[in-house]
């Protein structure tokens, strides 16, 4: 009888987010062929309940990240780094065939701990040159991570641009590298997009929707300023923002200061964003920088018109007829949104046709990594 391979996926948590949703869908797909365990640093993420009962779930801490004090939020990642060998031996080491760090940061440093018989893989979702910033703290992290990534047997990037960015920062990294686009369950997206939502999208004005974690990277602050300027010019429209994060209170205050509370809606977390995307006239991802932008694939599956800034996310809309790439500055965002509003609904793609998303090649590439032996580069 063929031995079932034991696979560990590590991630910070399974709270609402793009990489987190990908991992849940991917693990659910793979658990029929592999013995899957997911290890999180923080427990009780919203997506945990979407996991198959075949998947084992382990967590390092008993509190969610947002339940920690400010001091704990600073020191927990440091503690994971300093004590990674002890934590690994106590919580992870279980003779897994493959261990995968599915997100940048503390979980990658933890999974990097050597285990002679285990193949180590790191997944990189973001532009590594931008994700940590440029202050002293970020430079220390980059120095640490240069050594960390060299400990892996294989690195997987979700886009060509992310791989180029990584190679520009870590020029001497000789680990095998591969590009694998995100696994997406398109049937699930189409099904969930038909759910009812309490919010009403007025049909006599344009509705723009964005789905993003509320961090500086996503540029929601400048979107509020652009929106306010357009509203003052009597160009009626609404912007709906789905997501939560450390910038929420700051953005809420900015909405109040600009007196756009009735037209710029910060909806917070939504486990199912797809009905909002489906009802929107435009889906937007107007970030300062991006990785591949999995949510763009989801918007394409739903056949939406898409507006993005010129970041690595442009790779996700290559060849997509209904995408507009905007120069990455506030003035150009203002000009393009103004043009779309002035043209109105007549210029929008009215097609109900959805875009096929083929996962077969993606799954096969991932299985090749899981089934190949350690050291086979």
Percent of residues in helices: 25-40%
Largest sheet: 7 strands, parallel
Using only C-alpha atoms, the radius of gyration works out to 21 Å
Q: How far apart lie the N and C ends? A: 27 Å
Assess the beta-strand content as a share of residues.
15-25%
Strand segment count: 13
Biggest sheet, spatial arrangement of strands: 3-2-1-4-5-6-7
Question: What are the segments in which pLDDT stays under 50 over at least 5 consecutive residues?
Answer: none
Order of helices and strands: EHEEHHEHEHEHEHEHEHEHEHEEHH
Number of helices, where a helix is a run of at least 4 consecutive DSSP H or I residues: 13
> Which structural class do you get from the secondary structure elements?
alpha/beta
What does the model show?
The protein is an alpha/beta fold and 377 residues long. 36% of the residues lie in helices and 17% in strands. It has a seven-stranded parallel sheet. It has a six-stranded parallel sheet with strand order 10-9-8-11-12-13, sandwiched between helices. The longest helix has 14 residues, at 136-149. The model has no long low-confidence stretch (mean pLDDT 91).
Please outline what is shown here.
The chain has 377 residues and is α/β, with parallel strands linked by helices. The chain has helices spanning 18-30, 70-82, 84-92, 106-111, 136-149, 160-169, 186-192, 220-232, 248-257, 274-279, 294-301, 330-343, 360-371, and strands at residues 6-11, 35-40, 56-59, 98-101, 119-124, 154-157, 176-179, 206-211, 237-242, 264-268, 282-285, 305-309, 323-326.
